[in-house]
Structures are given as structure tokens and as C-alpha cells.
Write the C-alpha cells for this entry.
Amino acid sequence: MSFSSEVKEELSRQFSKARHCEIAELAAIISFCGQVHKSKFGGYHVIIHTENITVARKYFTLLRKTFNIKAEVTIKRNAFLKKSRTYIVTINNKNDGLRLLQALKLVDDRGGFYGMEKGVNNLVVQSNCCKRAFLRGAFLSVGSISDPEKFYHLEIATTKEEKAEQMKDLMKQLDLDAKIVTRKKYFVVYIKEGNQIVDCLNLIEAHISLMNFENIRILKDMRNSINRKVNCETANIQKTVSAATKQLDDIKFIRDTIGFSNLPDGLEQIALARLKDPEATLKELGEALDPPVGKSGVNHRLRKLKIIADQIREEQGGEL
């Protein structure tokens, strides 16, 4: 099971204590997955289509719990994709449909349907608890979250720009810095920052998934920290080896051309020490001298040897 599926499975078992929050979550499911058909004899039939059984189960349970509405559930199998199923939850009773739409503020006093093109009525999500419930229903319906082992990304996709803008605004009111991107026919509201995703999971009350997400994030941070230290140490070792190799080349060149006897005592001493111990650090080289010399003193002497070697090469007409 993917991490996204685990989050949705957890959300399908999470129910608000307040009726107005349950209505807000129903509003989200119907807004993103629903269709409303007016009956020939008055009233409305409300239908949702989803390929996710957790959405169908949550919607069916909310209808029973909040309105005592018994919906009809049917399953359609895709003839070409045998594993693909569509769950259709229908409120056939026209009076039940009207009662639900009235609670969602989608019909006027005369029973006229406002439509769902522009999203949910703001009266349904006035309080923060209802906003959180709506966000939970929206994620459950059309949301997804990437595997945190790979990267951090949470999104809610809709084909209606107005709904995407409303979703972004609602998330902003909950201190979530969401953005919108267009992907083919979809308007995708997304969050990419790890801390923001943690806040979002907390808001929709996916607490188990939040802890799993945080555990993975901690392990990733530790691995990244260790990798950075190893890379830094490796780079320093490579730099040290490269410098020591160049120093050895200069020292051997001086030895084979003018000899060490023509060098000042301090330079001869450090040249011999480097030849004796090619892998020694500057500190170790300095401690091996008599009297001992600090790192800066050792580095100064090695630079002087480089200058002498370059001068000899120049006098011989070679490349520096």
C-alpha cells in the first residue's frame, strides 16, 4: 500500500464530533466527486463516483451518521482494466437529496439548485474546525501525497479553477502556503515543504501518518547529514592527497636538478620530511621537525619549495 493510500485509509476512519464539521466533509466529497440531478417529480438525486473505496465508505457512513440517509452503492468494473473499479453511491430518495443539499447551502428557499461549479458555499466552512473537515474530505476525495522516502509533495487536483482557488484560499486561512499549477486539464493545489505537509496532516487529523512521515523525515535528515560529512571529509582527503602529490613532485624535481644541499636548512629539512612520509598532514610534518614547527610554518616552507621548483622549470624553458 502506498503512503498516500495509508493516509486515506486512516482518514476514512476519522469522524468529527460536531455535525456541522461532518456536513463540511460531506460538502468536500460531493464538491469534488459528486453530481446532482433534478428529479422529474421535484427534489434531487445526489451521486458520487470514485475509484477509491475509502471515499465511498466514508461518504456512505457520513450520510447514515449525519442525516440517517441510506444510500445505494453499486460497483462498475472497467472492461479493459479488470482491476479497476468505480464505486457509485446514490441517494435515490428525492427528499433525502433535497435535505442534504439544503444542509450544504446548495439550494435556495424555493428548492432551486445553485450548482457546484464555483465550489462550496462559504457558510459551510465558516469556522476553522469546518475548514479542517473540508480539507480532510477534499484530500480523501482527490488528494495525494508522495512517498516521503523519495520527496515531499502533497496535492489536491480539480478540473475547476474556481474550486482550486477556493481550496488554496481555505488552506491559506489554515496557515498552509499552498500554490496552484496547471497540469493538462487539472488545476493542482500543492504543498512541497516538509513542515507544511506535517501541518496539513495534523489539521486533517491523520496523526498516525504524521508520525510515520516524521520518522521517515528524521531518518532522511540523519542520512543526509552523514552523507554531507562523508562527502566533506572525502573532499578534504582528496584535496590533501592532491596537494601532497604536487609537493612530492616539486621536491623530487629540486632533488634531481639542484639538489637539497643548495637549499636553506629549513627547506631541506621539510623536503626530507615530506619524502620520508608522503601521507603525513601538515601538523604531523611540523611535529617531526627539530625543533617542531606549526602548520603555518610548514605550509610556508612548502610554498617556498614550490616557488623554487617553478623558477627552475622556467629557467630550463619548461612549463610551470
About this structure: Residues 228-315 form one domain. The chain has two domains: 3-205, 228-315.
